[in-house]
Each structure stands twice: as structure tokens, then as C-alpha cells.
Amino acid sequence: MTEEIFREDAYVKSCEAHVTAHTEDGVILDRTVFYPEGGGQPGDTGILNVAGGTQIRITQTLKGKGDVAGSIVHLIEEGVELPAIGDSVTVELDWDRRYAHMRMHTLLHLMLSLVNAKINGAAVGAVKSRMDFDLGDLVLDKEHLTEELNRLITEDHSVRASWISDQELEERPELVRTMSVQPPTGHGMVRLMEIDQIDLQPCGGTHVLSTSEIGRVKIGKIENKGKHNRRVNLVFDND
Predict the structure, then answer these.
(1) SS3 198
(2) Which own/partner contact pairs does 162-167 have at CB distance under 8 Å and 24+ positions apart?
(3) For 186, what's the count of Cα atoms within 13 Å in the CB-facing half-sphere?
(4) Considering the domain 98-236, what is its CATH architecture?
(5) 119, 105, 115, 113: which is closest to 140 by C-alpha?
(6) Do the domains 3-93 and 98-236 sit in the same CATH topology, yes or no?
(7) What are phi and psi of 129, to 5 degrees?
(8) Which residues on neighbouring strands pair with residue 14, listed in sequence order?
(9) pLDDT tens figures, 123-170
(10) Cβ 100 vs Cβ 126: under 8 Å
């Protein structure tokens, strides 16, 4: 098992750790600040610092499967010798990229609070993100939604995590708004992310502590992806 520091504090940019296992093209650590790909959010990238000053590029972070389930795999650049099992290392995030993901992921929660429809897909990006809505007969107003998103952002709502049991989640199915990705259960507890007065839902991703950190945004294209499916693209408004 890998201790997931990012679950409790997404702002920790680096940590010391020990190598506990190897995979074909990566290492498993006893603890990490790196988020593994999942729930529409990309895995983190960064640097693995080894004793003696060697720096190894971490190109992707994934959830372990099979014999290494419950761990986090840090994939490294090709042609580099893996540090030995038991070695002490330090890992450092590509912080600008991660922070953009935190802002974007929180933005998607705001977007979901404004659209009364299930989502059947979402992807977080550092520059652009998207949400796919099963709208039925609902029509989206791009300009109005952009105004509302920026209003919620500037209102500076706090963002915080809490935990409920798997059983409690089963008793509150209204908390789950996604059709394509179900919250991770089977571990006894599920994390809820709450935006004060705005949104409450299960989520394992990384988020900012306040909506004001997101900055100004705008909705790009709204694409037709089927009879009822509409894809909403969201970007930071840097103009």
C-alpha cells in the first residue's frame, strides 16, 4: 500500500519516501504526493531525486493493479536505471501542472452544480477541460453559464473534504451525479468533496481550498455528441 499524502493535503509539493517495489517501467513508493490517473484527472508528473544527486523524470502516475493493487506506480523515463528497493528518495511534483488540475477539477464541480443533468463523461486538463451531459430536452446558454461560473468563483466559497462509509453512500444515491465513473468503494470509506453552499459529491481528485483560486474562466464550444449528449468545453480566461 502507498500512503496517499495528496488525499489529506493536495498542496504538499514534495515528500521523502522509500522504494518498496519495481514494476516493468516504474517504481512503487511507501508514500507519495503524486495523484494517480483516475476519475477523469490525469496522473501527476515530476521528478524522482535519488541519493547522490541523480534526478529521474516521472512521466506518469497510475494506480497499481493485480499484485500491486492498492499501491501507486510512478512511471519513469525510458533507459534510466531504477533506484534499488529500500532506497530513500524524494519526489517533487510538476506543481504548475498539478495546480492547474486542482483549479480545473474544482471548476467542474461548479459546472455540475449549475446544470440539472447527469454527466456521462469528464476530463480534467491543465489548459482545457470538458464535461459530457445527458441533457434530454435541456438547452444550455453558454453566456449565462459563463457568468454564473465566474460569479461562484468570485464569491470565494470554501472547499473541504469529509468521509462517509460505503453503506452511508448506498443510502444516499442522490450524491452520485456521474453515469460513467462511480466513486471508489470497497475500502470502507468514501471521500466527499463539498463546496460550501454549492455542491457535495463523492470525489477522489485534488481540489483547491477556495473557489477564488480558480480564476476567471469561460465556456468554449458546446458540441453535439449524440441525441441528448452535449460536450461542454471549459478553459481559463486569461484575456
Answers:
(1) coil
(2) 162/191, 162/192, 162/194, 163/189, 163/190, 163/191, 163/192, 164/189, 164/190, 164/192, 165/189, 165/190, 166/190
(3) 5
(4) 2-Layer Sandwich (3.30)
(5) 115
(6) no
(7) -125, 170
(8) 92
(9) 999 999 999 999 888 889 999 999 999 999 999 999 999 888 877 777
(10) yes
120, 180 contact by CB (below 8 A): yes
CATH of domain 3-93: 2.40.30.130
- In the block, cell 511507501 appears at 30
pLDDT-derived band of residue 21, with 50, 70 and 90 as boundaries?
very high
| Chain position carrying cell 468521509 | 163
Domain ranges of the chain: 3-93, 98-236
Shortest CA distance to 236 belongs to which of 124, 118, 90?
Answer: 124
Answer whether 18's CB lies under 8 Å from 86's CB.
Answer: yes
pLDDT tens-digit series, residues 35-84? 999 989 999 999 999 988 889 999 999 999 988 988 999 999 998 989 99
Burial of 87 (0-12, 13-18, 19+ CB in 10 A): middle
- At 190-209, the pLDDT tens digits run 888 999 999 888 888 999 99
Determine the pLDDT at residue 184: 58
Instruction: Give the helix/strand (H/E) hosting 7.
Output: helix 5-8
pTM to 2 decimal places: 0.91
Q: Which residues contact 60 (CB under 8 A, 6 or more apart)?
A: 37, 43, 45, 75
Q: How far apart are CA 6 and CA 206, in angstroms?
A: 7
